[in-house]
Design goal:
Length: 317
């Protein structure tokens, strides 16, 4: 049996009869680029995931800084499509968008064969439900300790599946199934993204999000631990920007403005950011030398995140 949890719009495969639902997670910041807060003063994890793609930006402890820089150089050659020795904003922007699309496609392909049980190149709700929850459905989750959680997850999955199924025939095409796994990528799924975000953060169930719930979803303080600067920044964002009507809460419309920020192109912003930080002569384009001089911003080594791009053959990128 396989199991997909609701957010971050992809699901964790679980072991056959012993599987239990993974704790639900959600990506509500910069949905297409990274799950991490973009704070270069702390680390470059956001930049690593944006540059390499989420799945590729994993820890590769066996790679030394020298190996990392050598393989990053090969990626730079790939990005420099016109082979003029420079990486422009346009080239870097297209590369980041390519990596994000590749992540989504690979994620969908990885799960497709598991859920398309009759191999008709479509996935029906019954196929998904039986593959995900079938072991427990016959007993109505009676042998599960937290049966209410299972029932809630099933209802939530069905609601999202029906929303993704544009023609309401109970069967998803590959595009519709992609919308089911990654609703943040599809305009017609925006209501689902907002609704699930509200449900996850609104702990007291009053239909709105207060400051405590907002911060608590991102950060849990430890005893005697001082609050990081980025948490203080988020408090200010809540009070000054997120809470538009200044009533102390975020309603559905305000949440929508937060998690679905209009036409913001995060790949474009990240390309500008990386160039700004590495363009030493300020000619608005970067050389391989400039990139390698700041290699740890693009990729990591040992204790930091690496990307599978660095372990793949050049022609696989």
């Amino acid at each position: 049996m396989m199991l997909l949890s609701s957010l971050p719009y992809l699901y964790l495969l679980a072991a056959a009869a012993l599987a239990v639902p993974a704790q639900e997670k959600r990506v509500h910041h910069q949905a297409g680029l990274s799950d991490h807060v973009h704070d270069d003063s702390q680390n470059y994890q956001y930049d690593h995931e944006a540059f390499l793609g989420k799945e590729e930006a994993k820890t590769f402890d066996q790679l030394t800084p020298e190996e990392s820089k050598d393989r990053l150089a090969k990626i730079v050659d790939r990005i420099d499509t016109d082979k003029d020795g420079y990486v422009t904003h346009s080239e870097l922007h297209q590369w980041i968008k390519h990596r994000q699309r590749r992540y989504i496609e690979e994620n969908v392909n990885k799960h497709w064969k598991d859920y398309d049980q009759n191999r008709d190149d479509k996935i029906a709700w019954e196929e998904y439900k039986n593959a995900t929850y079938g072991y427990y459905l016959g007993e109505e989750f009676s042998d599960i300790e937290d049966k209410d959680t299972y029932k809630s997850m099933l209802a939530r999955d069905e609601r999202r599946f029906k929303s993704a199924d544009k023609d309401r025939d109970g069967i998803t095409t590959r595009e519709e199934f992609t919308a089911f796994l990654h609703p943040e990528e599809f305009d017609y799924m925006k209501d689902v993204v907002v609704q699930e975000t509200m449900e996850d953060i609104d702990k007291d169930g009053d239909g709105k999000i207060n400051l405590h719930e907002y911060i608590g979803d991102m950060y849990t303080s430890e005893d005697s631990e001082s609050e990081p600067d980025w948490v203080q920044t988020e408090r200010k964002h809540f009070e000054e920007f997120r809470d538009v009507n200044k009533d102390g809460y975020l309603d559905a419309n305000e949440v929508a403005q937060w998690v679905l920020p209009g036409e913001v192109d995060h790949a474009d912003n990240e390309a500008k950011h990386l160039i700004y930080e590495t363009d030493t002569n300020k000619d608005e384009k970067i050389t391989k030398k400039e990139i390698l001089a700041n290699w740890n911003m693009f990729v990591g080594s040992q204790a930091t995140n690496y990307g599978e791009d660095l372990t793949k053959k050049h022609d696989e990128l």
